[in-house]
Automatic annotation (TrEMBL):
It is found in: Cytoplasm, Stress granule; Nucleus, Nucleolus. PANTHER family: ENDONUCLEASE V. This is Endonuclease V. GO terms for biological process: DNA repair. Endoribonuclease that specifically cleaves inosine-containing RNAs: cleaves RNA at the second phosphodiester bond 3' to inosine. Active against both single-stranded and double-stranded RNAs. Has strong preference for single-stranded RNAs (ssRNAs) toward double-stranded RNAs (dsRNAs). Cleaves mRNAs and tRNAs containing inosine. Also able to cleave structure-specific dsRNA substrates containing the specific sites 5'-IIUI-3' and 5'-UIUU-3'. Keywords: Cytoplasm, DNA-binding, Endonuclease, Hydrolase, Magnesium, Metal-binding, Nuclease, Nucleus, RNA-binding. Its main location: cytoplasm.
Length: 309
DNA sequence: GCGACAG
DNA sequence: ATCTTGTCGC
């Protein structure tokens, strides 16, 4: 009995959640509050954090929450914490935070206690910020509760406020030619909710960046781009890898022996300035260097031209 | 009834 | 979110 899984949470719960979102939304700061955010090279920024929650396959309760901290601009992992958790809230579009934030918050607080010196100056969050049904996505939620600058990094367009992944939208995506190209996501309400960003030269599918907390959209987009060795920004990608690996181990699965040492790779060159929009800007060919980098393992998540998922 | 649906 | 190897392209 009592399997509310079929119909999701009762209206009463959703109503409470909406009220909570509205209450916290008043605390969101959607502009730059730190000096480094306005610096063309982000000088002053030394640590970028990433969070993610991975799930156990056949289980709707067990999951693993991870927080990682990377140096900037090197993007080397200097902190990693993963924790198995028992999910309480179900996933409901528009209420992702109530499912994941409690655990992410715990991870941040644990870091604050045990390694305050490693506290990230900004968090990249898997999901949306103000690009949300009620303007308060998971990145805003975590940002307000931790009071850390946060950026929403979504892999799919959340179709709200008139935004649609239609032919016109796809056409705009097609015009994003190189890393750093982007276009604004203007909602019917007349507000720019976020930006579609081509984060990597070899990835067609854009990222949907939106303000989480204490950072302007412009800085958020610029920073995200500076964190991308692949399509998914390293902080989020590393958090994802960590949480999945943690799950494997906790399940006693036959994980790959110890095949992990990507060698420090050079940080991605940040698009200088003028990452305004469109493409076609004078971007001289830069592919002359024979990148001796470790072969980008195809099994990752980038360059997999599956646009239908 | 049909479509949409961050993670 | 999760299931998954190979495979096509630069």
């Amino acid at each position: 009995m009592a399997l509310e899984a079929a119909g999701g949470p009762p209206e009463e719960t959703l109503s409470l959640w909406k009220r909570e979102q509205a209450r916290l939304k008043a605390h969101v700061v959607d502009r730059d509050t730190e000096a480094w955010q306005r610096d063309p090279a982000f000088s002053g920024l030394q640590r970028v954090g990433g969070v993610d929650v991975s799930f156990v396959k056949g289980d709707s309760v067990r999951a693993c929450a991870s927080l990682v901290v990377l140096t900037f601009p090197e993007l080397e992992v200097v902190y990693e914490e993963s924790r198995m958790v028992s999910l309480t809230a179900p996933y409901v579009s528009g209420f992702l935070a109530f499912r994941e934030v409690p655990f992410l918050l715990e991870l941040v607080q644990q870091l604050r206690e045990k390694e305050p010196g490693l506290m990230p100056q900004v968090l990249l969050v898997d999901g949306n910020g103000v690009l949300h049904h009620r303007g308060f996505g998971v990145a805003c939620h975590l940002g307000v509760l931790t009071d850390l600058p946060c950026v929403g990094v979504a892999k799919k367009l959340l179709q709200v406020d008139g935004l649609e992944n239609n032919a016109l939208h796809k056409e705009k995506i097609r015009l994003l030619q190189t890393r750093g190209d982007s276009f604004p996501l203007l909602g019917d309400s007349g507000t720019v909710l976020g930006m579609a960003l081509r984060s990597h030269d070899r990835s067609t599918r854009p990222l949907y960046i939106s303000v989480g907390h204490r950072m302007s959209l412009e800085a958020a987009v610029r920073l995200t781009c500076c964190c991308c060795r692949f399509r998914i920004p390293e902080p989020v990608r590393q958090a994802d890898i960590s949480s999945r690996e943690h799950i494997r181990k906790s399940l006693g699965l036959p994980g790959p022996p110890t095949l992990r040492s990507p060698k420090a790779q050079r940080p991605v060159a940040c698009p200088k300035r003028d990452s305004g929009e469109s493409s076609g800007e004078g971007q001289p060919p830069q592919d002359h260097s024979p990148g001796p980098r470790t072969a980008p393992r195809p099994g990752s998540q980038e360059q997999t031209g599956k646009d239908w998922q």
